[in-house]
Design goal:
- The protein is built from 13 helices and 13 strands.
- By secondary structure, it is of the alpha/beta class.
- It has two domains: 149 residues, Aspartate Aminotransferase, domain 1; 242 residues, Type I PLP-dependent aspartate aminotransferase-like (Major domain) (Aspartate Aminotransferase, domain 2).
- It has a seven-stranded mixed beta sheet, with helices on both faces. A four-stranded antiparallel beta sheet has the order 9-10-13-12, covered by helices on one side.
- Strand 3, helix 6 and strand 4 form a beta-alpha-beta unit.
- Helix 3 packs antiparallel against helix 10, helix 7 runs parallel beside helix 8 and helix 12 packs across helix 13.
- Bound molecules: pyridoxal-5'-phosphate.
- The site of pyridoxal-5'-phosphate has 12 residues, from helix 5.
Length: 410
């Protein structure tokens, strides 16, 4: 199916969905409270843009409403003395962070609004006090930039990095994942790093079980939850990790350049952030807040992104994202030329597909001939396409994607 036929295809699908909408809701298996996803799509600036965005895993986009408020805040702060405006905003920004703490059930520590997960991870990794030969455990499925940090930390601090290769995450049980971490622990182990939802496969790790195991050995855990907020319901108090980092510009649809760091209260005093702070603040939560002048409008717009999430409800959103993933992966499952490498029961929005044709050619054809953007991903020697729809994606969009991919690959 070529570029110019997308409109016809979608037109056809619209008629299919209108026809379906005549059936009783109960017959379709939908709950009466299920949001109207077509009208939610209309709340995003996606219809005017010719490329279909199936790469929400890299970064989300703001809704039209959040964007309008963001522009309003940006205009205000740029038409006044910025620090005068900040004084009037500070309470609201703090309130937005408290709402976020409430949303992820993080009551045992402090939350910091940063630029992204990368920054948050680096604050913890460079802020911890290392002794020579201390050990850190992590996995090959973690985020490459974080692994770079570990390599640099290893040289600078003379510590040891132990790397786990879980193999294909689809083929390993949760219990075996826990055992892989447990086997690497010894008395020198000081930190275990866990990715909550992996960026390549979208695999959801059993982080509660791993944290509980690590705790029994007195090992601290840093959870890279870049993809978790606004994507899946979770409870940081129950997970019981020591440090937790996330990107708010991914699944929460907050402005680009919004990230989160959570540090358990008991861990604060020992953490020495790479940026300095006044000496007398060493045991105080705000010692991690000496970050200089920042895009304060992000902290304000954050509240609107939370509003939007609350209107839909995280349970509805998670279910929708999971169903969208199931929708396209089910339609590809029987294809000989394609292999879904993600466990569709231990993932939510993100899934990846291995294809028999050269990856670059397929992703270019999707972009150039069909106006679809997906991400090329993979490990060394094993490439695949990562597909990450969002709440602005409709089934008709995925029909078009699946048909286009099948045409290219067969
Ligand atoms: C698992 C994981 N960790 C960390 C990051 C870094 O996020 P950011 O670019 O927002 O710093 C990403 C980005 O995709 C990621 O997938």
């Amino acid at each position: 199916m070529k570029n110019n036929s997308r409109r016809e295809f979608l037109h056809h699908c619209t008629w299919i969905s209108i026809a379906c909408s005549c059936a009783p809701i109960s017959a379709l298996g939908l709950s009466p409270e299920a949001p109207d996803w077509a009208s939610i799509k209309a709340q995003f600036l996606v219809d005017d843009y010719p490329i279909m965005n199936l790469n929400s895993g890299s970064a989300g986009i703001m809704s039209k409403r959040t964007l309008a408020k963001y522009v309003e805040y940006l205009t205000l702060i740029n038409s006044h003395a910025p620090y005068e405006i900040l004084q009037t905003w500070q309470e609201q920004i703090r309130n937005n962070l408290q709402r976020l703490a409430h949303h992820i059930h993080a009551s045992q520590g402090h939350l910091y609004l940063l630029r992204n997960s990368t920054e948050a991870l680096n604050i913890v990794l460079w802020g911890k006090q290392w002794n020579k030969k201390d050990e850190i455990i992590h996995a090959t499925s973690d985020y490459p930039l974080m692994i770079n940090t570990l390599e640099q930390l290893k040289s600078a601090k003379k510590i040891k990095i132990k790397t786990i290769d879980h193999g294909q995450l689809k083929n390993i049980s949760d219990d075996d994942i826990v055992k892989n971490y447990e086997r690497k622990i010894n008395k020198r182990t000081k930190l275990l790093i866990l990715t909550y939802i992996t960026h390549r496969e979208g695999h959801i790790f059993p982080i509660k079980k791993i944290c509980s195991m690590a705790k029994s050995y007195g090992v601290e855990v840093l959870v890279d939850a870049a993809h978790a907020i606004g994507h899946i319901e979770h409870n940081v108090d129950e997970i019981d990790c020591d440090y937790y980092t996330s990107s708010l510009h991914k699944w929460l649809n907050a402005p680009l350049g919004s990230g989160l760091l959570y540090v358990k209260s008991a861990k604060l005093e020992a953490l020495q952030p790479p940026l300095s702070y006044p000496d007398h603040r060493s045991d105080q939560a705000n010692k991690l807040e000496y970050l200089g002048t920042r895009p304060y409008q992000n902290g304000m717009a954050l509240g609107h992104a939370i509003d939007e999430l609350e209107k839909i409800g995280i349970e509805n959103k998670q279910k929708r994202l999971h169903n969208l993933k199931k929708y396209w992966t089910d339609r590809i499952a029987a294809e000989n030329s394609m292999d879904i490498i993600t466990d569709t029961n231990r993932s939510c929005a993100i899934a990846s597909v291995k294809i028999s044709k050269p990856l670059s050619k397929v992703s270019q054809a999707l972009k150039n001939d069909y106006n679809i953007h997906v991400k090329k991903s993979g490990y060394i020697g094993e490439g695949f396409l990562r597909v990450s729809p969002n709440i602005f994606t409709l089934e008709s969009d995925l029909d078009y994607f699946v048909e286009s991919l099948k045409t290219i690959c067969t």
